[in-house]
Amino acid sequence: MDLANLPKMTFIAVFAGFFSVLATARSKTSFALTLLRLSQGWVMKTIIWFVMITMNAIMGTAMLFMWIKCRPFAKVWDDTLDGWCIEPAKIVILYQWSVGWSGCSDVVLALLPWNILFHMRKTLDVKERLGIAIAMSMGLVAGVASFVKLAMLPRLTGDPTDTVTVTT
């Protein structure tokens, strides 16, 4: 690997990570809006709005800090530049909050269809309701994956404040 390409590769990784989190947030928002249209009652709608707003705020903050954690901004992908960055341990804590809340919102959004479908017992038979509920509850798998990621995030380097020095 040519070390001259390291800043370009890091930029692409940060860029891809940003859009990955953006896509995740938008897909959760889309599903929540679908649930909002299907739900009845102010309690259910309040829960959905709370999950949507807080999830977008927390994940949006994490996306923002992917780019603004260093001054100059280019130091995010080019460590050879002079400047400063927020301590890695603090960034890990922010990302842990983002991953943790993402997992919680996955679980909540996966369980809400069961309540909605329970009230549709006059329009759908049991098999249809069960099939729809299982399909709409696949977010539980994403929630479990988020919790595993949450547990593993600080262990990636053993110490969340470790940095890697590349030498030739």
TrEMBL record:
> Locate the Rhodopsin domain: which residues?
16-161
Sorted keywords for this record are: Membrane, Transmembrane, Transmembrane helix
Q: Which residues form the signal peptide?
A: none
Domain of life here? Eukaryota
Localization of this protein? Membrane
Q: Does the keyword Magnesium apply?
A: no
- One cellular component (GO) term of this entry: membrane
Q: How does it sit in the membrane?
A: Multi-pass membrane protein
Statement: the UniProt record of this protein carries the keyword Membrane: yes
Membrane-crossing residue ranges in chain numbering:
6-25, 46-68, 99-118, 130-152
Query: Which family would the database say this protein is a member of?
Result: Belongs to the SAT4 family.
Q: Give the protein name, as stated in the record.
A: Rhodopsin domain-containing protein
Q: Which organism is it from?
A: Thermothelomyces thermophilus (strain ATCC 42464 / BCRC 31852 / DSM 1799) (Sporotrichum thermophile)
Its taxonomic placement starts with: Eukaryota, Fungi, Dikarya, Ascomycota, Pezizomycotina
